[in-house]
């Protein structure tokens, strides 16, 4: 019996990076998977092909998570296609690195809308569906090590990640009576498109690598196992938790 057999898993922002690795990881664990994506039709189709290659059903639905109606539509279409929603992985996010003193208003607003409000509406829409179904479920927010530490060029971003971490703590309380578990993963520095430009700075990349006890930056696939675990019945008594997946970077202060 595979860990997610019989479950329908939804993942936002899943045409690339951690979301895609989570979607494919869930399919390999036996789930049918519905992905949300923003703009890359080719990458979304490639993700669905990987889900199908794992022997599961896959479906891609385009939409901007910043708009609340995207969440409602995502859940409705997932239920139309596969009958139910068991897991929501709220992953979509942006991090347009920028200095604090001259941060454009629009950049702050967009980052909050996508990362925090997008996650809020996706989790709310999924939770309402899970309550209607009556047999529980799991919400997993892709927060960040940035929920716990600052970043000079991430003053708009780190509060959204702290917000998602906090959202999972509050929803764990609000939804426990419905059997819905709410947890977050806190990735460290994972090599994806979101930080490609930032880590093109050789000095910064070497500094980040040197801080990591496990000796390397993360890969998107490093998040698949922790997300599948939190989605699965192996984590039946885990709610309100936050799982660092950072190669030990956070604890490596001295
Ligand atoms: P990524 O850029 O590959 O993935 C982000 C995904 O979100 C992309 O597919 C993008 O299209 C999608 N997206 C962006 N705006 C969207 C919108 N408005 N609507 C729908 N989708 C949207 O980078 P990633 O590293 O895989 O990022 C995934 C998540 O992981 C993000 O929330 C990010 O904050 C978080 N995270 C990443 C790292 C890291 O080091 N890479 C560390 C901690 C947390
Ligand atoms: C993460 C963390 C990483 C950064 C990404 C964009 O939360 O801060 O170091 O590369 O965001």
Give an account of the 3D structure.
It holds the Pfam family adh_short_C2. It comes from Sphingomonas psychrotolerans. Keywords: NADP, Oxidoreductase, Rhamnose metabolism. It catalyses: L-rhamnofuranose + NADP(+) = L-rhamnono-1,4-lactone + NADPH + H(+); L-rhamnofuranose + NAD(+) = L-rhamnono-1,4-lactone + NADH + H(+). GO terms for molecular function: oxidoreductase activity, acting on the CH-OH group of donors, NAD or NADP as acceptor; quinone binding. The chain has a 7-stranded parallel sheet, with helices on both faces. Helix content is 41%, strand content 15%. α2 (41-53) links the parallel β2 (32-37) and β3 (58-62). It has one domain (8-245): 3-Layer(aba) Sandwich (Rossmann fold), CATH 3.40.50.720. The protein has helices at 17-28, 41-53, 68-82, 105-133, 158-175, 202-210, 224-231, and strands at residues 8-11, 32-37, 58-62, 87-90, 137-142, 180-187, 242-245. It is globular and about 50 Å long. The chain has 254 residues and is an alpha/beta fold. It has 7 helices and 7 strands; from the N terminus they run βαβαβαβαβαβααβ. Bound molecules: nicotinamide-adenine-dinucleotide (NAD) and beta-L-rhamnopyranose. Nicotinamide-adenine-dinucleotide (NAD) binds at residues 12-13, 15-19, 36, 38, 64-66, 91-95, 114, 142, 144, 187, 189-190, 192-195, 220.
Question: Keywords, please?
Answer:
single chain, 254 residues, alpha/beta, Rossmann fold, seven-stranded parallel β-sheet, 7 strands, globular, binds nicotinamide-adenine-dinucleotide, binds beta-L-rhamnopyranose
């Amino acid at each position: 019996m595979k860990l997610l057999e019989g479950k329908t898993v939804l993942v936002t922002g899943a045409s690339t990076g951690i979301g895609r690795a989570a979607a494919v990881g869930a399919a390999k664990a036996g789930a049918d998977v519905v992905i949300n994506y923003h703009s890359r039709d080719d990458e979304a189709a490639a993700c669905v092909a990987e889900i199908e290659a794992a022997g599961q059903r896959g479906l891609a639905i385009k939409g901007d998570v910043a708009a609340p109606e995207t969440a409602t539509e995502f859940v409705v279409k997932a239920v139309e296609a596969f009958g139910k929603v068991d897991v929501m992985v709220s992953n979509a996010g942006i991090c347009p690195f920028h200095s604090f003193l001259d941060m454009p208003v629009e950049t702050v607003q967009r980052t909050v809308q996508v990362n925090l409000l997008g996650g809020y509406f996706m989790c709310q829409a999924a939770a309402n569906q899970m309550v209607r179904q009556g047999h529980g479920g799991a919400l997993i927010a892709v927060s960040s090590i940035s929920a716990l530490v600052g970043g000079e060029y991430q003053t708009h971003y780190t509060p959204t990640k702290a917000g998602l971490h906090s959202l999972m703590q509050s929803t764990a309380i609000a939804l426990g009576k419905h059997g819905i578990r709410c947890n977050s993963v806190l990735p460290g520095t994972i090599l994806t498109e979101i930080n490609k430009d930032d880590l093109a700075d050789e000095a910064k990349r070497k500094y980040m690598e040197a801080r990591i006890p496990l000796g390397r930056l993360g890969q998107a696939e490093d998040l698949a196992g922790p997300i599948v675990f939190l989605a699965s019945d192996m984590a039946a008594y885990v709610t309100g938790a936050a799982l660092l997946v950072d190669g030990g970077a956070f604890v490596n202060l001295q």
